[in-house]
Amino acid sequence: MNISEAREVFYEASDMASDIARKLALAGIGVVWLVAGGLKASGVTLTREELWALILLTASLAMDLAQYLYKTIAWSIWAWWKENRAGQDGMCGAPSSINYPTWWFFTLKMLSMAAAYGFIIIDLIQRLNVL
Q: Measured between alpha carbons, how far is 73 from 70 in angstroms, rounded to an integer?
């Protein structure tokens, strides 16, 4: 496998992870909604765990949006600069630091998702008196 093939596998895997995380965040919000009894007919009574799960799931979705917004803006500015300022077209190297914020958002998104599901599991265990 050469480097370009490895990059394609990497891009495909990170895109799939983002898609799955997005779906899990929305599903988690649905689970909290159901467990909270449809938010008690808008009386909105949440346990601490449910509230934290919702906050973290919302944060995960916000990090997902931030990741793709940053990536879109950063790469479009870089491409514009290379084409218009530097007068370059074709192959040219980009600084690796341009992707650092993208990775931070990706990592925060996944950590928020994992923590949110931890709170959901704790809440379900408490409700079902499993332990």
A: 5
Residue 39, domain member (yes or no): no
Domain extent for 73: 49-80+98-131
Question: Is the per-residue pLDDT at 91 higher than 80?
Answer: no
Provide the 10 A C-beta neighbour count for residue 60.
Answer: 26
Number of domains composing the chain: 1
Question: Is a pLDDT exceeding 60 seen at residue 1?
Answer: no
Is residue 126 assigned to a domain? Answer: yes
Tens digit of pLDDT for each residue in 22-33?
898 888 888 887
User: Which residues, other chains included, contact 45 with Cβ-Cβ below 8 Å and sequence gap of 6+?
Assistant: 36, 39
Q: How far apart are CA 61 and CA 52, in angstroms?
A: 14
